[in-house]
UniProtKB/TrEMBL annotation:
Regions crossing the membrane: none
Record protein name field: Regulation of enolase protein 1 (Concanavalin A-like superfamily)
Record InterPro entries: ConA-like_dom_sf, DUF1349
Amino acid sequence: MSDSVVIPAFPVPLRRLNAPEPCEADGYDRLVVGAAAGTDLFVDPADGARRDTAPALVGGLDGDFRVSALVRAGMSAAFDAAVLLVYASPDAWAKLCLESSPQGRPTIVSVVNRGVSDDCTSFAVDPRSEDVRLRVSRLGSAYAFHARVGEGPWELIRYFALCESAEVGFSVQSPTGSGATARFEEIAYSAERLADVRDGS
């Protein structure tokens, strides 16, 4: 098994974290990433319990950028999720998720981890929607998470500082379930700096 995955839409090879299975580059701009049962990336703020078994594909990008993808996930259990990931170290990372809520609804969730995790649920998505896009943008040492449903606007989810040298990529998790598979389609990269964090342009 190769240590890296290459897709033409992403400017650098993606290295594996926690060996995604399946892990498939599907054409120019698509990835399929799988997670086994019980996999997660979270550090509980109450007791510091660390879970860092979620598989991912990440690569280092220079300068400002935008990375986005249409996300689809088989979400059969609570907290199954498809994830865009910013990863600097086991103690410094952030994730933007399309995640199954405890009530079984697809939901936009973000987590920023600086030693422990700061978890935020933003909004639920109509389960009938098949067009949910996630985007991470870097602006110097700051990052912005946005989500878009259908033809709607890019909604700001989080704006935060982390580490300019962090890697960026794609992850999937199934902390309470029997495993999950996420598809990332229409993956797009741009070196253009985000003009307006608030309106997403």
